[in-house]
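To illustrate the input format used throughout this study, we show a single complete record. The first block contains the structure-token representation of the backbone; no residue identities are included at this stage. The design step must infer an amino acid for every position from geometry alone.
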């Protein structure tokens, strides 16, 4: 099902521009959520559509469907779009079950299908509503992602109901924007299908039996496979650094192993290395965490040297 070729990891030749010299967008360049009243505007519109759909179209939905496709009313993923993606507005969404629950968001498996036609599986990541006390770690991550209005900043800092709703939507906006950027340059991340308020629909990585790809933490690779996976990881981190980003919470639990390839997931806390004053520290922590896992599985320490890799990525990011 996966169309995005992870084999695009290649070394730059001497006549290619260095990743460290590429212009990097800060998060201030990314689209900001619109707001009205106590709910963000996008969330208010989404809830209105849900109410309208429930009132006018519930009896018309195919058996078992939760809703009609929301593709036409959302922020859509980057081009080129994968061939497996169903964009037909006549499609309906069927919820198949819970994939993961968490403090900030829950993830469900959806099937988007045209009655009698094409279908695809998606992961629906839904950030929780503002009445929950969420994002307990967000203070450091939000550095460099400042909102443009002081009233909104105060609401987020004071954790009012409105402020927590803004934080949830800002994290959804940030994750979708980062995934779109990274996927477009060939980084091993799920294809970001769409964002509708605080709901993200992402590529669901699975096998032929529709079983989700396991996390790297569950893998027990032999020496050769371990070294191959390490090389994939380094290439991925180089692509992140070339965009001026680091994962922000990297571990073997936030990496999937799909058909022999690593895929990095869970990026709401992605850190802008330049705009965030603690960017270098977040990068060093990511590298230390994941290199420690590889060493614990038997990779020689001289290969999985966190200090050497961090210094290399700082150079790739053009931070020296």
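Output of the design step:
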């Amino acid at each position: 099902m996966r169309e995005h070729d992870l084999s695009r990891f290649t070394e730059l030749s001497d006549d290619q521009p260095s990743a460290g010299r590429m212009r990097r967008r800060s998060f201030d360049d990314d689209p900001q959520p619109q707001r009205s009243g106590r709910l963000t505007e996008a969330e208010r519109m989404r809830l209105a559509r849900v109410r309208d759909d429930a009132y006018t179209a519930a009896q018309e939905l195919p058996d078992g469907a939760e809703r009609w496709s929301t593709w036409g009313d959302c922020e859509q993923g980057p081009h080129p779009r994968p061939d497996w993606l169903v964009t037909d507005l006549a499609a309906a969404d069927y919820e198949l079950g819970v994939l993961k629950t968490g403090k900030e968001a829950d993830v469900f498996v959806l099937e988007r299908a045209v009655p009698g036609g094409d279908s695809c599986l998606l992961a629906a990541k839904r950030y929780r509503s503002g009445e929950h006390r969420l994002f307990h770690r967000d203070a450091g991550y939000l550095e460099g992602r400042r909102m443009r209005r002081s009233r909104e900043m105060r609401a987020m800092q004071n954790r009012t109901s409105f402020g927590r709703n803004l934080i949830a939507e800002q994290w959804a906006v940030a994750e979708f924007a980062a995934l779109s950027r990274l996927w477009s340059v060939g980084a091993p991340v799920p294809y970001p299908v769409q964002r509708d308020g605080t709901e993200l629909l992402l590529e669901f990585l699975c096998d032929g039996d529709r079983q989700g790809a396991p996390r790297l933490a569950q893998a027990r690779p032999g020496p050769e496979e371990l070294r191959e996976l390490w090389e994939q990881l380094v290439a991925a981190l180089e692509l992140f650094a070339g965009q001026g980003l680091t994962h922000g919470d990297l571990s073997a639990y936030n990496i999937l192993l799909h058909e022999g390839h690593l895929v990095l997931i869970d990026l709401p806390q992605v850190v802008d290395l330049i705009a965030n004053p603690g960017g270098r520290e977040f990068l060093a922590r990511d590298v230390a965490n994941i290199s420690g896992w590889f060493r614990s599985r038997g990779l020689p320490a001289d290969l999985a040297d966190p200090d050497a890799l961090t210094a290399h990525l700082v150079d790739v990011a053009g931070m020296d």
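Structural context for interpreting the output: The radius of gyration is 20 Å. DSSP finds seven helices and 13 strands in the chain.
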